[in-house]
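Usage example:
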Amino acid sequence: MATASELILESQIEALRQNAELHDWKFEQLDPASFTLGMPAKDGSRFTTLAKCDGFAARPPAWHWYNPETKAVDAPRDTPLGGSFFHSAGVICAPWNRLAYKGVDARGPHDNWTIGNWMTIPETGGTRTLAAMATRIAQELLAAFTKRMG
Amino acid sequence: MPQTDEITLHVSTPAGPFHGAFPKTTKVSAVIAAIVEAKGLDAGEDLRLMNGDEQLAPERPLVSFHFGSEVTLSLLATGSGV
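Running the assembly step on the lines above writes:
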């Protein structure tokens, strides 16, 4: 029998999948707690995220960058930069990204956030669902993206 | 079939897609309020209606954006840039 957390995650992934269909983003579910999502950037190229949602929503997903052809994860060539959102360290800098926490990932810019409080950190704002996070990433790819990391 | 004085919106939201028709004179702020209610979102959140990377100004009516009879938009939940 599925746990409450598993049902919440399943529901949120389904909402995101439907949003992806609406915008013609390329969604692929890899297992019950992870998926890839390809979205366009403002230069006409595409980026693909690999979201690992184990432990959601007690802790936020890990939003990696992904190459669907080589299966490489967080390769500089597949990592967007731009503004503080697409941080020069190569991670999305937001409390709703597990990789932004230095205690989780050495690249994480923040050691002043507590991961268990991610939903109430002021910078999270209303970005508390997987669908909201994906929309924010898509919007920043169209607005803040400036170049690839490598 | 939408009326000619209506526009059908397909909107990705933090709670999944919203589909609905509105009079073209509807202000963006009223559209956001309707979506918030329909999708059970938190009315206290700062939500922005986006067409790609363009924010639709809340005080403007839909007709002022010169969309066709249908358009696909995003409801963006903001958080500060960090």
